[in-house]
Amino acid sequence: MLQLNYIRDNKDEVLKRLAIKNFKDAEAIINSVLEKDVERRNIQKSADDVKAEANQIAKQIGELMKVGKKDEAEKAKSKTGELKLKEKQFDEELKKIEAEIHQALVQVPNTPSLKVPAGKTPEDNEVVFEHGVKPTLHAKAQPHWELTTKYNLIDFELGVKIAGAGFPVYKGKCARLQRALINFFLDRATAKGYLEIQPPIVVNEDSGYGTGQLPDKEGQMYHMGIDNLYLIPTAEVPVTNIYRDVIVKESDFPIKNCAYTPCFRREAGSYGKDVRGLNRLHQFDKVEIVQIVHPDKSYEILEEMREYVAELLKELELPFRTLKLCGGDMSFASALTYDLEVWSAAQTRWLEVSSVSNFEAFQTNRLKCRFKDANGKTQLAHSLNGSALALPRIVAALLENNQTETGIKIPKVLVPYCGFEEIN
RNA sequence: GGUGAGAUGCCUGAGUGGCCGAAAGGACAUGUUUGCUAAACAUGCGUACGGGAAACUGUACCGAGAGUUCGAAUCUCUCUCUCACCGCCA
């Protein structure tokens, strides 16, 4: 959620930036919010004045009672009836208008950075970096969903039997490969200064609101009604919520956390499209990196995180490209997002494996994650996160790109983690 | 699942109707002093939303919501959560 004060002071810039996101009703909503804000302040002033008067009288009555002037006390009491009525009325008005402002404000997406390219669809995303050579596969090369059957690596049908579509069962060397990837990613992250966290993989409602999954996207999460808990769609949710309602020390910046968790997504509405094999799952594994930083540093750190994820892909010897998302393809909460995509040689297409975003103060405003600056003023921190990395599509690309007629080669860096060099 | 206790500021913890935005201690910050990796002393130290050029000042907040009252951290009701013990169990 954007900060009202910020909008008030920077209206033109806010509108300019929202235009990049193709947010249609920006001007209408912002104007109405600002008008209501003026009204709100007027009402609050009136309410405060009435309350101040009532408080005064109450104090006087107390003193009169103490010295035994009962008559005068009674006289003072008679005045309070009217004040109480007014107070109630103002409070209700205030509540109403605050709700309206909030309602309008939550509809407004984060203001994109001015570096975000204009555009509406994924085709408008800007390729900022490309690395590696797309491999040429042998004549009988297969997509990963056939390779996994051939080498007995993943049983999708078994997953259907146990849970449902989108819950694969990994076996043998593939299970080991998954474990290897998780450990590799965590080792690299901790070496880079990220503190490893093992968070709960269920969260309560407050946490869902904190990172913005609720109230809008609740259909995307698995909900356990009996205890009112949600399965996390990403470690971002529990890890970022560590910093909900806290005032961190400025000297603690940058706060760097990483976490491996399974992720659960209902993916409602995406049936039938690009869902073969490992491309889109209800449950998958991911290592996430999260940073809470000083506002002045967040863009510098975003680049650092993007570079870090790119390094991982280089080490895995996967061809990849980095995209700067255009206004139309960015998420609601992001101010600037890089997507990293690996080349899937048998599918001959790019697969998104990481999304690295700077949320500026959009998320921390909702979370109330603040710090005291040098002047002793509390202000919102900036939050960033990125996948580093999501497993299934990495596995898909590894299987497809590294296949030979006799087996699948494991990248060097993973061999110590896997304990084998080839799947055959 | 059963029984009991509780929810106060960054933390511990006092506070049973007006003198309480809240004692005390700790932590933290600044300064002084002695010196040495620390201690002593002094001062400061909640958050949010308003008003004001500023000094300053108004209002709200003691788990959440409602109520009683001129006046509520303190009384009543509802809800949520936490802890302890027992039972069951990884």
**The CATH topology of the largest domain:** BirA Bifunctional Protein, domain 2
Number of domains: 2
What is the C-alpha radius of gyration, as a whole number of Å? 27 Å
Which class of secondary structure composition applies to the elements? alpha+beta
Low-confidence stretches: none
**Mean pLDDT score, rounded?**
90
Q: What is the CA-CA span between the terminal residues?
A: 51 Å
Assign a percent range to the helix content.
Answer: 40-55%
Provide the CATH superfamily of the largest domain: Bira Bifunctional Protein, Domain 2
Number of helices: 13
Any overview of this molecule?
With 424 residues, this protein is α+β, with helices and mostly antiparallel strands. It has two domains: 4-105; 122-423, 2-Layer Sandwich (BirA Bifunctional Protein, domain 2), CATH 3.30.930.10. Helix content is 42%, strand content 21%. The protein contains 13 helices and 18 strands. An eight-stranded mixed beta sheet has the order 1-11-12-13-16-10-9-4. A three-stranded antiparallel beta sheet has the order 5-7-6. The chain has a three-stranded mixed beta sheet with strand order 8-14-15. Helix 3 (26-66) runs antiparallel to helix 4 and helix 5 (144-150) crosses helix 12. The longest helix is centred in the N-terminal third of the chain and has 41 residues, at 26-66. The protein is elongated, with a radius of gyration of 27 Å. The protein binds one RNA strand of 90 nucleotides through residues 40-41, 44-45, 47-49, 51-52, 54-55, 57-63, 65-66, 73-74, 76-81, 83-84, 246-247, 249, 368, 370, 376, 378.
